[in-house]
Design brief:
mainly beta, globular, 22-stranded antiparallel beta barrel, five-stranded mixed sheet
Length: about 950
């Protein structure tokens, strides 16, 4: 496929001029909460509402549904749908274009801050293919131009859709009845002339066979340019959250030697003493605020009506994407190296004497030491994720008689994923290349095999290009995910009626099989990569057989104080069989999920709804199939570091018992840049999570106030036996502060560096944080949505809308031994993703004729650092212990110049509000980057976009 080329604009002048020509844009449907039409059967206006498979046009659900229209997404100027969804109050920021370190080349959605793995993503009511073994869908693979709307149900929905629907369901409804030709284009650029993005889309639709059939085809292209942290003043330098001093890495271009006391090489190869806290390496300019990506999508949707009672339908989706993340040059990162300091010609006499003084086993010509040398000569570490996914769906639907409707379908999908990790360093080759002797003709490797080139990494700028190429390591991993689903259901009226209207039911069955295979190259599998860590082969699959049913029964109608009263219920039984080839294990389990709800409308203007749902999430293929794998994680304090254990007999004994060498007690180094080594992976014997969801709400549609609707809903979601990865800091705190038993459950998870007792070093060092059924999660709050349309006569109309969430509780407990962390309104090292108590989006739109202009106001409530809130640290330990509330305003417009031509344009972040600067070690490295939270707050600044739609 030939890639399109675009002429980049490097100033905002041209955009401002274009904005003046096409200032108006399209107003979104401000009241985003409604019951939504999703699909229909032949020659019928029957509705399938997300949250139920019952097909009834009079159905009122007890679960709230939020609807995001196609026009709202287009109006935002977003390149992908995830950029818009992350701003709805029901969601928190997940992985996306503003995630760099921790981005796996995907875009995800996280409802209620319970994790992407607990949000089920559907396309037209059916599962979409995941991008890896975690079972999570990459939203980059869904074509925005073909999305008619997005329906979001928050809270458990496993009785209807099966596993994963714990925090809710995001259902993308695609256009399937388009006729004609439609071309769309969009371009955006920041005020500073960078952060460009482009999208192109072409949709064609054709009715045939006298209108009984339709085929709609769409092709799309999108590209987003990189934005480096060095391109913005607030992220140019890595800052420490404590004092905004240098907060970079101790792995420096000079080379930091950890021998109990600190030393650092200078340009002459001498060791500078007393460098316990050396000048830090500023890695920020190399890292990204916005990851570049490019994607192609192609989708075909078709249906054909054979008769009034039989219709065939199908969809084929294909998508390719490439996402590149870039982080600072690799280093040796305090891996344990052997050095022949007595005979090595690269070691100066001065440095040789210091090594000799530190050598506890003199006479063997060598010493093993932890070494942190930034290998800037190798260039940045780039991760290139190339994804190709396709899915085919086909089936038949129809009806028997007047009220029995049925559907059978089958679908198959695959994702092929190639991951390249470039410009790392090989531990084996680096070790070989620094064991150097002088053979009389100059420095040579002591082991000359594999054309070894001597590497002088002792001091800045000493590494030759040839030596750099010898120790350089490029890695690759290939993943393949497949999904097969077949199922069917029967829906209709019950044969009895309690009130005037008969009840409705649906019964169905599904079979699903998912396979995942991860194939890392030998260097990744063996842990030879210092900077990127390691990965392990995975070959796992599961299949599940399910039967389900739903019922909705009207109890009373058209009675005083009972305009309507109905109850609903649902149940699903699931039987799983897991097989992990790489571990040689298999197991099975079964579970039930169910729901019960009620809807009562005392008068036509007022409706109450309530529901209880038991939802489940079966462990995904990584959680059952990934072996223990060395990696890196987040921690801000090691209880055994420095002088902390001195004077505390219990802590001293525990540090020694858990691996701190006696000679290093009192001088153990702490985490570097908020990171330590860890071990990740799955556990074959984990079982499904279980959750309980309560929702209670009211819907207002007062007849005395035309064009006004409002909903208020209370939600409470709890997850028991949650499959969680315990944070590294929590393991350390549990071991040294609570458990205080070297053979206890938490202390036994800690493997220290045998050389110096640190939690940084080789692949044998780290904290075991593999996932286990040990956690408890809770999300509780109130959603409010309202819309009011005001007719101002010949002048036009004004539409006011608001979508608001008040988060009351976000509880996170990693084990019974550990405290419950109340994360609402907090962010930091435990509460990783910002979770403000208040968040809302308010829109004000004015329309006159073919012109519409809209002001969108997004509010993000204040956030307190969780270490301060939990009493682990004082407010004085941070420059910014509390992030104040933030408000962003976007001004967008739409103008239709003819029936076939529409222009859209807008200014995002209208007042050019900079993100809060908190420091790089304020929280987890995936969310906290560039001294801020670039996924939650806008790191780009004021930006402009212009788009056009041509229809024929």
């Amino acid at each position: 496929m030939t890639k399109l080329q675009f002429r980049h604009l490097h100033t905002s002048t041209a955009i401002i001029a274009a904005l003046g020509l096409a200032l108006p844009a399209f107003a979104q449907d401000s009241a985003e909460t409604a019951a939504a039409q999703s699909a229909s059967t032949p020659n019928d206006d029957v509705i399938i509402v997300t949250g139920s498979r019952i097909q009834r046009n009079d159905l009122e659900l007890s679960s709230p549904v939020t609807v995001v229209s196609n026009e709202a997404i287009k109006l935002s100027g977003a390149v992908g749908v995830e950029e818009y969804l992350r701003d709805i109050p029901q969601a928190v920021t997940a992985i996306g274009s503003n995630t760099n370190n921790g981005n796996e080349g995907a875009a995800t959605v996280d409802l209620r801050n319970l994790g992407e793995e607990r949000t089920l993503v559907l396309v037209d009511g059916k599962r979409f293919v995941p991008y890896d073994g975690d079972g999570i869908v990459d939203l980059n693979m869904i074509p925005p131009a073909l999305v008619e709307r997005v329906e979001v149900v928050t809270g458990g929905a496993s009785a209807v859709y099966g596993s994963d629907a714990i925090s809710g369901v995001v259902n993308f409804i695609l256009r399937d009845d388009f006729e004609g030709l439609e071309a769309e284009g969009l371009m955006s650029i920041s005020e500073k002339g960078d952060s460009q993005s482009y999208t192109l889309s072409l949709t064609g639709g054709l009715n045939f066979a006298g209108g009984r059939g339709n085929i709609t085809v769409n092709g799309g292209y999108a590209k987003q340019e990189a934005l480096f942290q060095g391109d913005r003043e607030f992220s140019l330098f890595a800052l420490a959250a404590e004092d905004f001093g240098p907060g970079g890495s101790a792995t420096t271009p000079n080379g930091f030697v950890d021998l109990g006391d600190g030393f650092q090489f200078n340009a002459n190869g001498d060791l500078i003493a007393d460098a316990v806290d050396p000048a830090r390496f500023n890695f920020n300019p190399f890292n990204l605020l916005q990851a570049p990506h490019e994607k192609y999508t192609a989708t075909a949707v078709a249906k054909y009506e054979f008769s009034d009672s039989l219709e065939a339908f199908g969809r084929f989706s294909y998508a390719e994407s490439e996402v590149r993340t870039i982080i600072a040059p690799t280093g040796t990162f305090f891996f344990p190296f052997e050095l022949n300091y007595e005979t090595n010609p690269f070691i100066s006499d001065q440095a040789r004497s210091i090594f000799a003084a530190q050598d506890t086993t003199p006479g063997d010509d060598s010493i093993t030491f932890g070494y942190g040398r930034r290998l800037t000569e190798l260039g940045t570490r780039d991760s290139v994720y190339s994804n190709a996914a396709w899915q085919g769906v086909g089936g038949l639907r129809g009806k028997f008689g007047s009220n029995l409707k049925w559907e059978v379908f089958a679908q198959y999908a695959e994702t092929d994923r190639s991951q390249q990790f470039l410009n790392d360093v090989s531990f084996n080759e680096a070790q070989q290349a620094i064991l150097v002797v002088d053979d009389g003709g100059g420095p040579v490797c002591r082991d000359a095999s594999n054309s070894c080139v001597p590497a002088n990494i002792f001091g800045p700028g000493n590494l030759s290009a040839a030596a750099g190429d010898f120790i350089r390591l490029d890695l690759r991993e290939d993943n393949k995910t497949s999904q097969f689903v077949v199922g069917g259901f029967l829906s209709g009226d019950l044969p009895f009626a309690i009130s005037e209207t008969p009840g409705a039911f649906v019964v169905g069955a599904e079979y699903r099989k998912e396979d995942y295979e991860a194939i890392p190259d030998d260097n990744l599998a063996q842990g030879n990569s210092i900077g990127f860590g390691s990965s392990t082969p995975v070959n796992a699959n599961y299949d599940v057989k399910e039967v389900y049913g739903e019922i909705n029964i009207p109890i009373l109608e058209d009675r005083p104080f009972f305009e309507s009263l109905s109850i609903e219920g649902g149940v699903r039984y699931s039987d799983y069989q897991n097989e992990v080839t790489t571990l040689g294990v298999s197991n099975s389990f079964s579970n039930w999920s169910y729901k019960i709800g009620a809807e009562w409308s005392p008068v036509s203007d007022l409706r109450f709804r309530a529901a209880f749902q038991r939802a489940v999430r079966a462990p995904n293929l990584n959680e059952i199939g990934e072996p223990r794998t060395p990696s890196t994680g987040d921690a801000n304090f090691d209880p055994c570091q420095g002088s902390n254990p001195i004077g505390n007999a219990t802590l001293t004994a525990l540090c020694l018992a858990t691996g701190v060498p006696a000679e290093n007690l009192g001088s153990v180094g702490g985490p570097i840049s908020g990171q330590i080594n860890n071990f990740v992976g799955g556990t074959a014997n984990i079982v499904p999570e279980k959750s309980n969801t309560w929702t209670v709400g009211v819907v207002l549609t007062p007849t005395f106030l035309p064009d006004f609707t409002a909903t208020v809903d209370y939600f409470d979601i709890t997850v028991n036996d949650a499959i969680l990865q315990v944070p590294e800091q929590s393991v350390l705190d549990a071991c040294y502060l609570i458990e205080q038993d070297a053979s206890g459950a938490f202390c036994s998870l800690i493997d220290r560096n045998p050389l110096n007792g640190r939690l940084i070093g080789g692949t044998e060092t780290g904290v075991d944080v593999r996932v286990r059924n040990i956690g408890f999660l809770r999300s509780r709050g109130i959603d409010v949505s309202a819309r009011y349309g005001i007719d101002i006569g010949d002048v036009g109309t004004i539409d006011l809308g608001v979508n608001l969430t008040r988060q009351l509780r976000t509880d996170l407990q990693f084990a019974d031994l550990l405290p419950v962390n109340e994360c609402e309104g907090l962010v930091g090292t435990t509460c990783l993703r910002p979770d403000p108590k208040w968040r809302w989006t308010q829109t004000t739109a004015f329309t006159t004729g073919d012109f519409t202009v809209q002001l969108r106001w997004q509010h993000i409530g204040s956030l307190t650092n969780d270490n301060v809130a939990f009493g682990v640290a004082d407010a004085s330990d941070f420059v910014v212990p509390k992030i104040g509330s933030f408000d962003y305003f976007d001004l967008t417009s739409r103008f239709r110049v003819a029936d076939q031509i529409e222009f859209r344009a807008g200014v995002n972040n209208l007042f050019d509000k900079s993100p809060p600067v908190v420091g790089n070690d304020y929280g987890g490295t995936a969310e906290n980057s560039g001294n801020t939270y670039p996924g939650t707050y806008d790191p780009i600044g004021r930006s402009f976009f212009i788009g056009a739609t041509l229809t024929y």
